[in-house]
Design goal:
With about 700 residues, the protein is an alpha+beta fold. The protein folds into 5 domains: about 170 residues, GAF domain (Beta-Lactamase, 2-Layer Sandwich); about 150 residues, Beta-Lactamase (2-Layer Sandwich), CATH 3.30.450.40; about 160 residues, P-loop containing nucleotide triphosphate hydrolases (Rossmann fold), CATH 3.40.50; about 80 residues, Helicase, Ruva Protein, domain 3; about 60 residues, Orthogonal Bundle (Arc Repressor Mutant, subunit A), CATH 1.10.10.60. It has 23 helices and 21 strands. Helix 1 packs antiparallel against helix 2, helix 1 packs parallel to helix 5 and helix 5 packs parallel to helix 10.
């Protein structure tokens, strides 16, 4: 009851009633919540209607009962909001059914509905009036006014209350519709969140093969719609007939439960869900029925609710996914249904992960077998396509094995045709970069004006003919190795840019201001004496020292004579197989001549000779045109044939250079050796310019 309700004289004026109806309409327009609406209506109706309590009773069609929704002021004790009464046992039910007002002027004169009337008498209610709440579309319920004193209701008063009830019915209908709309909106939002969870789980399934990462992503998504503190994934291991907990997400746990724990099928929650192929929902009392160690540990962790769902794919049960909460009754049927859908997707992910793991194991096994077979078929020094066992070659390959695992720059020096590119490839193949690109650039074969574009690339319009952007060799070699053959032929004006790449691993394309960063390893090669070029100021000293971090000198073929027979046989087999020839025999005298020849063109010259010999050999015997070799047959006792050939080779180079030793066109450069080395050999072999 209000603290000081306004009680106008009986028979309030028509103007006052009309004004009250306007206020009722105003209150209806301002409120959607039933509680707030009736609190406002009660205050305003007190001005024109005398009452001590005001109630709204609505009909529940699903259960066919009358439910008390609103109780304004001090209503009868023993009747509270939410109370339900059968339709036929209360005045409200009678009003709802007949759509007629129920008038109770004096409770002592009424004999119907004895149970409810007894409650009213015990609370001092003496009179009441109930009118139907009905809109044009449906019957909603009843609006009731009660007094603690007897009161004879006039027709005018009843008509006014019916007018009020008709307006209130509109408000109640609007409020109920609003509540239903809000409930439907909440349901849609809930369904949207669940669908979003399924989408996130699907994305995790297709993007994550690691089961730990997959479970963490799924657990984070589920926590937005299902309250839980614990998530676990257990997979069945047939060989042990147990389940292994492979992944666990329990940030609030005490650490009693850990990954890799074995879960027995008997006496465990996961085991029962696995065997029955059905979800299991347990409260604390039901958890006590399971006696496995993991079940006991769950209880010790303070878990009070568990839902466990099997992972089923292609009619095969892989394991279980479980959620647990520290709260009682944390999981409803909708949560279980969602987890079943999630489990179906997780089962696919687990199956893929297991298949991927199996493929990975097979791949590792094949890789190990491949390495073993490669070790079997490679030479003793484990280098492909490098033939020979001479001490000079072994020394070179030892240097290769030493420097290959590093990222250091290597400078390979040697005469033309000695196999510098094979050494460079061996360095790459033995390095951590072997899975990436090996890019070769012959600096002597590219015109000087185009070399910068070839190495560093260019932008569209950088020069005439640059109709599109082009990536340079350094960008193509990113992550791998770039081999600059004939590095001594790089123009002097381009050398600073090359030096910057070596030091900073960055450069700009031709015609661009954008800096490109790369991760490359440089291997350079030359048949020229770079130190003499530095002295002649045709090669930058800083670049020379930056290239010469780890120099490797490849010996000429004349210094590894013992490798020539093996090389001859290798090339004979190579070209005979390519040309479908059956060359089976190499005459001993042929090998002897080839071994003692000076080979100014080194291995390349030897290979070309053998290719030509295979072409002209119609039968099984290799025919080599020995007449082309000027091998001395009569030599003094103190001079070996090799020395004679080397002396003749040096004399020819001196004559071609007009006896100029140093410089880019000098005899030393032509022979691929240092000037001091040439002078030493001339002194040793007695070579001097005739007067």
């Amino acid at each position: 009851m209000s603290d000081s309700p306004i009680r106008p004289p009986a028979g309030a004026s028509t103007d006052a009633q009309h004004h009250a109806l306007l206020e009722v309409a105003e209150a209806i327009a301002q409120h959607r919540d039933l509680g707030e609406l009736f609190h406002e209506l009660a205050d305003r109706l007190h001005r024109v209607v005398e009452f001590d309590y005001l109630t709204v009773t609505l009909h529940d069609a699903a259960r066919n009962v009358m439910r008390l929704h609103i109780l304004e002021a001090e209503g009868p004790r023993g009747i509270h909001p939410g109370a339900e009464f059968p339709v036929g046992e209360t005045p409200s039910g009678w009003v709802w059914e007949t759509q007629q007002p129920f008038i109770l002027d004096d409770i002592g004169e009424e004999t119907r509905f004895p149970a409810l009337l007894q409650i009213l008498r015990e609370n001092g209610v003496k009179s009441a009036c109930s009118v139907p709440l009905t809109t044009a579309q449906r019957r909603l319920g009843v609006l009731s006014f009660g007094r603690l004193t007897p009161h004879r209701h006039t027709e005018n008063e009843i008509a006014f209350l019916q007018q009020v009830a008709r307006q209130v019915a509109v408000a109640v209908d609007n409020a109920l519709n609003f509540e239903r709309a809000q409930a439907y909106q909440r349901q849609l939002a809930h369904e949207r969140d669940r669908l979003r969870v399924l989408l996130e789980v699907n994305n995790a399934v297709v993007s994550k093969l690691d089961l730990h990462a997959l479970l963490n992503a799924i657990s984070a998504s589920l926590r937005r719609v299902i309250h839980h503190e614990y998530t676990s994934l257990a997979l069945y291991e047939p060989e042990m007939n147990q389940m292994r907990m492979l992944a666990l997400d329990f940030p609030q746990g005490k650490g009693l439960i850990r990954e890799e724990m074995l879960v027995p099928l008997e006496g465990s929650m996961s085991g029962k869900a696995f065997r029955n192929r059905q979800s299991l929902v347990l409260d604390r009392a039901a958890m006590d029925e399971f006696i496995s160690p993991t079940s006991r540990l769950l209880r010790d962790e303070g878990v009070r609710s568990v839902v466990c769902t099997p992972l089923i794919t292609h009619d095969r049960v892989l394991g279980t996914i479980s959620l647990a909460s520290l709260r009682d009754a944390a999981f409803q049927q909708g949560d279980v249904d969602l987890l079943v859908q999630v489990a179906g997707q997780v089962a696919i992910a687990v199956e893929n992960a297991l298949a991927f793991q199996e493929i990975g194991e097979l791949k590792n096994k094949l890789a190990q077998e491949k390495l073993y077979l490669e070790d079997e078929i490679r030479s003793e020094m484990n280098f492909d396509e490098i033939v020979g066992e001479s001490p000079a070659l072994r020394s070179v390959l030892k240097h290769v094995e030493t420097v290959a695992p590093t990222d250091s720059t290597v400078l390979i020096q040697g005469e033309t045709g000695t196999g510098k590119e094979l050494i460079a490839r061996a360095i790459h193949n033995l390095s951590p970069r072997r899975e990436h690109t090996f890019v070769k650039v012959n600096c002597a074969a590219i015109p000087a004006g185009l070399l910068e574009s070839e190495l560093f690339g260019h932008e569209r319009g950088a020069f005439t003919g640059a109709i599109a952007q082009r990536l340079g060799r350094f960008e193509l070699a990113n992550g791998g190795t770039i081999f600059l053959d004939e590095v001594g032929d790089i123009p002097l004006e381009l050398q600073p840019k090359l030096l910057r790449v070596l030091q900073e691993q960055e450069f700009e394309r031709l015609g661009s201001t954008h800096t490109v960063r790369v991760d490359i390893r440089l291997v350079a090669a030359t048949n020229r004496d770079l130190s003499e070029m530095v002295a002649a100021r045709t090669f930058r000293s800083d670049l020379y020292y930056r290239l010469r971090v780890f120099p490797i000198l490849v010996p000429p073929l004349r210094e590894r004579q013992e490798d020539i027979p093996a090389l001859v046989r290798y090339f004979v087999q190579k070209y005979a197989r390519r040309m479908n020839r059956a060359v089976e025999t190499i005459p001993a005298e042929t090998l002897d001549v080839l071994v003692h020849y000076a080979w100014p063109g080194n291995i390349r010259e030897l290979e070309n000779l053998i290719e030509r010999a295979v072409i002209v050999s119609p039968g099984p015997v290799l025919r080599v045109p020995l007449g082309e070799f000027k091998v001395p047959t009569e030599l003094s006792a103190d001079i070996l044939p090799l020395q004679a050939a080397e002396r003749e080779h040096i004399v020819r180079a001196l004559q071609a250079s007009n006896w100029v030793l140093a410089g880019p066109r000098g005899a030393a450069a032509r022979l691929g050796m240092k000037r001091t080395t040439l002078q030493s050999k001339m002194l040793k072999l007695g070579v001097a310019r005739s007067k």
